[in-house]
Amino acid sequence: MTTTTSATSGNSSLTSLLNALGGSGSSSSSSSSSSSSSSAGNPSAPGIGSGLDVNTIVTALVNAKKAASQDQINNKTNQINAELTGLNSLSSALSTLQAALAKLTTTSTFASYDAAVTDTTIASATTLSNAVPGSYTLNVSQLATAQKRSSAVLPSTQAVGQGSLTIGVGANSFNIAVSDTATLADIASSINKASNNPGVVATVVNGTSGTQLLLSSSKTGVANGFTISANATSSDGLQALATQLGTAGNNEAQDAKLNIDGIDVTSASNNVTGALNGVTIALTKTGTTTLNVTQDNSTAQTAIQGFVDAYNAYNTAVQSLDYNSSTKATGALFGDTTMNSVERSVSSVISNAVRGNSIGTLANLGITRNVDGTMSLDSGKLTAALTANPNAVQDLFAGTNGYATKLNTALDAYTSSSGIIATRVKSLNDSLNQLGTQQTALDNRMAQYQTQLQKQYTNLDTLMSSLNNTSSYLTTALQQLSNSSSSK
Description:
This protein has 488 residues and is an alpha+beta fold. The chain has 13 helices and 18 strands. The strands form six sheets. Strands 1-14-3-10-11 form a five-stranded antiparallel beta sheet, with no helix packed on it. The relative contact order is 0.17.
């Protein structure tokens, strides 16, 4: 009995020691024996022999070591991306505002006119920016026409005769060589294909009596009439053709004749330009009517409303990027020096009066600012100002000291390709690139650290597996010794 007690006591002590080293106790010796048997062929497999979860431990240690540096990179990256998003939004709002300002500095915006003819069957009219408002009596006595002449009738296949034709329009002329087999169709083709033709169109008309050659000036007016002759060595037939086409008939060129408020005007074209500054009159028949030229303020009103809308969009963008007093939320550019500078620049321009201008301020034109910073437009007040003095309204915006001129110059410092916003964006992108480099370096360090830990804990796992095997062997041996002692 004494021997048995001693063996049992020794076995218990060894089991406690092995447990302290990470091995299996006596209660699990069968399981440990099975594990050691399965791991003996692969001693480096993580956790197989010892029960140690190497991959989880290594991942946790790597993440813990990486966390502080990774958080710093992530926080800085998020901050920069938020700034970039905010600056892009600000730049977009300013660009939209500048586009509206550009329309206010365009001459045609404030120099737009309407022209209306009372009897539209006689004429119509269009205007340019240099038109002058007024009402005019228009009397059209003659329309401009193009010269047309035709030849005698010939069979379609008959040759006219050889020689040369000279055709002239004004100071310009060209020659056509005619072969002894050429028909009227051949002559027409040669005229139309001539590269130096100054403005004569040839057409063959196949009538009931035969074929005729019809020559027409390509433009109306006496100055665009044509002449035609055959040289002295030409055949009788060709000379006869030239005589026929060179003789005046019933369709000769003539200029348009009209009278504007008692002043006679002639024009080679029925589209009369230059008679009234900035007005083109298109004549369609003879007769008397009235032409009214009036200022069209709709373009200016649309442009000014566009400015107000663009400013309000800018104001909304700035508020969302700064601080929302309703939601108590800060925007991407809260406290940003660039945005604060933009706000001061814009406010400085629109708050001051335009010196030397009879209207003076936006408020006098009907544009006022509300408590929330947005603008409102009194269309009635604007219409009255445009009707009374359109030039003053134009100068208020487009003059040297005008709001659009000065505000556009102020915004250029921020929105140009080399401006403040572009410079900031470039700097922030450079910082992102640096953070990318830091991220790569951190990832490389952590990869090396992970490899090191993986090796160390795999070795530990192998060692613990070996100890488990030893523990299992000793437990079995001691158990056999105990059983032997008991049997005695």
